[in-house]
Amino acid sequence: MPTLKEFLRSEVKPALGCTEPGAVALAVARACAELPDRGNVAAVRVTVSANIYKNGMAVGIPGAGGARGNAIAAALGAICGDASRGLEVLAGTKPEDVKKAEAWVEEKRATIYCDQDRGGVYVLASVFTPEHKAMCLIEGSHSNIVKVTADGETTFEKERPSGASSGFADDGFPTLFADVLKMADEMDGEDEDFIWEGVEMNDRIAAEGIKPAGGGSLQSSNFGLILRNDEKVGDFVPVALEIRTTASAAAEARMSGVQLPVMSSAGSGNHGITAIIPIAVLGRRAGKSRREIAKAIAVSHLATSFVKRNLGRLSPVCGCSVAAGAGAAAGMTYLMGGTYDQICSAMSLLLSNIAGMLCDGAKESCALKVGSASSEAYCAMEWALEGQHLAVPQGVFGASIEETVANVGRVSREGMKTVDRVMIDILDERHRPNAEAF
Fold it and tell me: For the chain, is the Cβ count within 10 Å smaller at the N or the C terminus?
């Protein structure tokens, strides 16, 4: 079983922009690092799984001035990507890089191919110069480089992830939720500081999103809603509204391409927003200490991963709502002194509510789902602390939290098999109307 410290370093990481195009850019940049003539790249070809293709098709790229999609990310990975920065690979993007990347995409010098038969995280980048070719394969998780080649020779290789079907390594992570929660008790000062870095990171992007001049209609409307609420009832703003507004503002800013990193959870920045911000907002409102908030966020990350390992890294359902929403419900209930049974009740109420929320790719409207899940997680916490719970198994709700989570995972994996194919067809018709069928 991993320690809490090992878990946090593996599953909670800074990420700049959406992690799907981030993985594309990282794979391209790492392949380019093998080229002696990187400045002469002639073509970039990237094959991705259906999940990567869907999630990266229409999302804003950080620092790209509104440019969107996996192809732009691939071009930028070759032009200015720094693979040593991991999922912050495009942190150095400049306006002139974006213009160049847009030209590459227009000229089909940087192209993306979708392998509909592959799911989860899979990115195979091939980069060509007149004299050389390099390749990089990312598989399992968004920054997990498993193989690099240069002119047909392997320069780096590691064992493929044993949990390839779900995208999670077979690392001994507990299968019983009670054992998962016990891991939070291991938190030391170093872990607390690391978790708090995530709070501050996600606070910054939320503040950027809430700025009325930030440019997004969703966050502007939410911001106005808080102001109107203040006018009606003085200084009091309902906690659920503040949680919803703050989380949705962070998600929209991120999906729009704001060049600020977030602290991710279970491989996703939006998961990190949902898993962290509600607990931080509630903790400050409730007067909780820094350590109490940090420990509750550790619980949230752990619970998010517990659900996510049943859904898979990428899934037809919205993990930033379903998995991280359950994590937020667990973390807030823990923060407010809830018992183990109340924590499980809060998670089950959340999952029974929004288990089927669809993932239709990464884009600004993800903010709606993040906001809904965050506020619903708060409501689930309130109900659980009041002793409300589902009395008997019904729907996806099972006799235990393990059974409930397994049911939700089964619905996603088995019941929604064709959803991604349909969704990709819809997105292709909109974004690639003249594209050949893959």
Answer: N
CA dist., res. 250 & res. 203, Å (int) = 8
What distance in Å separates the CA atoms of residue 276 and residue 17, rounded to the nearest whole number? Answer: 17
Question: DSSP string covering 125-191, please?
Answer: EEEE-SS-EEEEEEESSTT-EEEEEETTEEEEE-PPPTTTTTT-------SSHHHHHHGGGG--HHH
C-beta separation of 87 from 143 below 8 A: yes
Query: Residue 389 CB: number of other CB atoms within 10 A?
Result: 15
Please check whether residue 396 is in contact with residue 408, taking contact to mean a CB–CB distance below 8 angstroms: yes
| pTM of this structure | 0.88
Cα end-to-end span (Å), the chain: 41
pLDDT tens for residues 357-403? 999 999 999 999 999 999 999 999 999 999 988 888 999 999 999 99
Between CA 411 and CA 413 the distance in angstroms is 6
Give CA 239 to chain center in angstroms.
24
Count of helix runs (H) and strand runs (E) in the chain? 16, 8
Query: What is the token pair recorded at 318?
Result: 């919205």
Q: How far apart are CA 309 and CA 307, in angstroms?
A: 5
pLDDT tens column, 236-271 = 578 999 999 999 999 999 998 898 999 999 989 999
**Residue range 349-364, pLDDT digits in tens:** 999 999 999 999 999 9
Look-up of token digits 């808080």: 226
DSSP state at residue 362: S
Q: Are 239 and 279 in contact (CB under 8 A)?
A: no
Q: Which amino acid is at 99?
A: K
Longest distance between any two alpha carbons in the chain, whole Å: 69
> pLDDT, tens digit, for every residue of 58-98?
898 988 888 899 999 999 999 999 999 998 999 999 999 99
Residue type, position 416, single letter: M
What is the Cα–Cα distance from 203 to 207, expressed in whole angstroms?
6
Residue 117 has pLDDT above 90, yes or no: no
d(CA 277, CA 274): 6
What is the distance between the alpha carbons of residues 76 and 97, in angstroms, rounded to a whole number? Answer: 7
CA 147 to chain centre: 23
**What's the confidence (pLDDT) of residue 244?**
94
Lowest-confidence region among 111-125, 164-178, 403-417: 164-178
Q: Judge contact between 121 and 141, C-beta under 8 A.
A: yes
CA angle 361, 357, 17 (to 5 degrees): 35
92-107 average pLDDT score: 95
The strand pair at 43-49 and 122-128 is best described as antiparallel
